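Entry 12.
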Amino acid sequence: MNKTALKADILLIITSIIWGFAFVAQRAGMDFIGPFTYNGIRFALGSLSLLPLIGYFKAKKQTRPGVRAVNTEVRDNNTEVRADNTEARAGNTEARAGKTEVRAVNTEVRDNNTEVRASNTGADKSRTAARAAASGSTLAMRRSDRLFFILGSLAAGSILFVGASLQQMGMQYTTAGKAGFLTGLYVVLVPIVGIGLGHKTKIPTWLGAILAVIGMYILSAPDHLGQVNPGDLLVIASAFFWTAHVLLIDKLSKRLDPIELSAAQFAWCALFSLGTALALEQPHLETILQAAIPILYGGLGSVGIAYTLQVVAQRDAPPAHSSIIMCLEGVFATLGGILILAEPAGLRSLGGSGLMLLGMLATQWDVIFGGPHGQK
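Predicted 3D structure (tokens):
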């Protein structure tokens, strides 16, 4: 494994830890406010938290070209000065040659100046035309990039809104640990959906899918087999949107700045969530303040930091490589639920979680055991 891939793995592990414990914050936040209010505020905080970082990097990029431009102008001016000095010395030498020669030289100089001005006029026209063409091409490119950024971030933000909304609504009825593992179903779905995108899928992936489905069923029926918690169903549905989000981010992050993409998609998601909250819920300042700690962790930690780490890391790791480490998200969610929320850890819950974890790891067989994709 090269250093770039190792760095991406470390970032993904940190992301997994933050996201795992974020399920605890999400579950706690539901004791005070509605799911859309919670998501709206936390994604708005996440987007705003990235603005100073975006400003810093933009200022850094603009400073360096400016310095180079000033140095270029100074060199051009110095060249012109040296040329003028050379012409002055040549004129003095000719003047000393005699008055007759001076008049002849002056006549030739006037003729040469006329030719130079004509030549300069043609050159100026050519440069002006070239600048106009380059400016038009650059402007068209900037418009195209801007449109791609807007549409790309809108698509990512829309998918994020649906996935986060389904997950957060489900968190009202299920535990943090179960939600963590059920959300992790996208790890199995990513390589399977990848078949439609031309990715190769082998037998371990299908075996992993079977194990994950069995574990998901056991995990989602804690009381009686055959009965499924409605909150679990909502979280399972959200996994399909997380799958689409992972694949879309994998494409967008190769062309767009990851920090700007994160801030934009969070802003879209916050806008949609707050609009829905105003329409369906009745948010009050008092209850929002009561949920301040879960909101801050969800906004600054889970959104502002973790999602950005994911976007940055995925520039150097394929979706399947990213998914294997994200399998640990459910483990940390279960650990946080037990330690912080005192959630029970029965044999059925642990068994279902274990089968889901095995299923997730099985889908990444090539990565773990050094298959064709493991060398990336």
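Annotation: DSSP finds 15 helices and no strands in the chain. The radius of gyration is 31 Å.
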